Recover the amino acids of this structure.
């Protein structure tokens, strides 16, 4: 690991600087995040914040930067920002996250050379790094008598707050209860949501300001305390910050929080109980599909970080059952998300993205089950990665054999208002965008809607495209050939070019 201190001749000044400069930079970036994001839709503001984060990290870690790699890192950052400049979405956000992490790794940790080491370092940066903010925040005030007691509650309270935020955003009934407990004050600028936002923002920003990479020797990260303080061993730090006491408190709190959501889903989602008059069943069922998946992913990350192979928590007879219970509740949350999405599709029909969401939710559920399998079978994280890669590969291979375009088109026509008398009308534009494989469903839709010259003309264009696809052997496909036979049309004869 590259030490954050400067040579000994400047030790005193170097130690004074981080204590004042780094927290100030982090607070300034958190304020910028508040101004850019809180209560606003995200767009080009993500690019502006990413550039500010790069500048702040550069200023805070100027002494340790690898100058020879700065140009490459800058090019990677710019390339990662281009998708967000085009449009901000989940993919462009992933591009920003990956570019910033790799750029930080290149400029501050040249010792990492292998792909596996770099991937592990990035996982440590984004999964474990945010929790170091809470430890360093306690160390910053130099309160050793309180530190041991506070540390075991930092992770439960901080991550528990994130889970509360996600569960409340996914459940209008919980949101109503929270509003009843805290009606709010229009004159009050500081709210629970804003405090949580600042906490999350600082925890995400801090790893880029107080940079630390886990070395092969598991060297300890520097803490913003007195430089003369004796260095602790990595095992003692890990046990203190992510040890049995912290994990046990976290699991008890998380199980209680998730139990509320599980019980409410069992009553209202699965049991179809009557909701309060001001909350519609559609709102309860449709709103929480995606936030609950984010919750399950965060839960999986916590279990992986806490239940490391050979660690004290994995050997605990008390922690293990709590982990199994919590993972089981997360699997139930994923199943509830699938049901919510299914209810949404029943009303608003299928799209490519909703099919992808179904598949993604199943993969998340399988990933949670594999985490439990790793713990029960006492396997390594490498085994877990291989198992997930095999599952993903098998899923992608299976999906490659499925005619999703035909399935989506047939479902939308069969469940449309034209066919059933309820629901939404057929979106003919979307049907045509599915391509020639949607032709059988398009024929049914035209028959249901009545002959429309415009629709017939557009159908003819798809037929021509289909015939063209099966005419030349280079563009021939078994799926297109089956469709041609099903339509009872013969491709035009032509010599192979």
């Amino acid at each position: 690991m590259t030490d954050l201190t400067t040579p000994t001749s400047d030790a005193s000044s170097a130690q004074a600087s981080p204590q004042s400069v780094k927290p100030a930079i982090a607070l300034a970036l958190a304020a910028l995040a508040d101004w850019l994001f809180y209560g606003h839709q995200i767009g080009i503001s993500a690019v502006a914040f990413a550039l500010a984060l790069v500048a702040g990290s550069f200023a805070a870690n100027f002494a340790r930067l690898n100058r020879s790699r700065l140009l490459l890192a800058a090019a990677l950052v710019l390339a990662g920002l281009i998708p967000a400049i085009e449009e901000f979405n989940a993919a462009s956000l992933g591009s920003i996250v990956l570019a910033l992490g790799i750029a930080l790794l290149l400029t501050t940790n040249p010792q990492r050379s292998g792909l596996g080491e770099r991937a592990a370092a990035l996982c440590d940066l984004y999964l474990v790094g945010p929790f170091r903010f809470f430890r360093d925040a306690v160390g910053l005030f130099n309160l050793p008598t309180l530190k041991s007691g506070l540390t075991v509650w930092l992770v439960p309270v901080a991550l528990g707050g994130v889970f509360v935020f996600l569960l409340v955003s996914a459940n209008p009934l919980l949101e109503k209860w929270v509003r009843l407990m805290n009606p709010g004050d229009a004159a009050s600028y500081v709210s629970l949501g804003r405090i949580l936002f600042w906490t999350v923002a600082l925890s995400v920003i801090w790893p880029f300001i107080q940079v630390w990479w886990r070395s092969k020797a598991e060297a300890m990260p520097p803490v913003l305390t007195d430089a003369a303080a004796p260095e602790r061993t990595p095992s003692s730090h890990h046990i203190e910050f992510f040890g049995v006491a912290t994990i046990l408190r976290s699991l008890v709190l998380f199980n209680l929080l998730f139990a509320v959501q599980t019980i409410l889903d069992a009553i209202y989602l699965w049991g179809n109980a009557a909701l309060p008059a001001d909350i519609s069943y559609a709102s309860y069922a449709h709103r929480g599909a995606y936030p609950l998946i984010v919750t399950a992913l965060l839960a999986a990350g916590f279990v992986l970080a806490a239940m490391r192979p050979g660690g004290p928590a994995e050997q605990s007879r008390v922690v293990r059952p709590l982990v199994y219970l919590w993972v089981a509740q997360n699997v139930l949350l994923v199943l509830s998300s699938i049901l919510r999405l299914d209810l949404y599709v029943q009303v608003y029909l299928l799209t490519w993205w909703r099919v992808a969401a179904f598949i993604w939710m199943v993969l998340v559920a399988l990933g949670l089950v594999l985490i439990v399998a790793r713990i029960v079978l006492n396997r390594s994280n490498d085994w877990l990665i291989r198992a997930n890669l095999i599952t993903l590969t098998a899923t992608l291979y299976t999906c490659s054999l499925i005619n999703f375009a035909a399935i989506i088109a047939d479902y939308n026509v069969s469940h449309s208002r034209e066919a059933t008398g309820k629901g939404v009308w057929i979106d003919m534009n979307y049907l045509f965008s599915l391509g020639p494989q949607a032709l059988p469903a398009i024929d049914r839709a035209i028959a249901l809607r009545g002959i429309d010259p415009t629709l017939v003309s557009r159908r003819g264009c798809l037929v021509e495209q289909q015939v063209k696809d099966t005419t030349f052997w280079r563009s021939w496909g078994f799926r297109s050939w089956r469709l041609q036979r099903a339509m009872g049309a013969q491709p035009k004869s032509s010599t192979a070019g």
Notes: The radius of gyration is 27 Å.
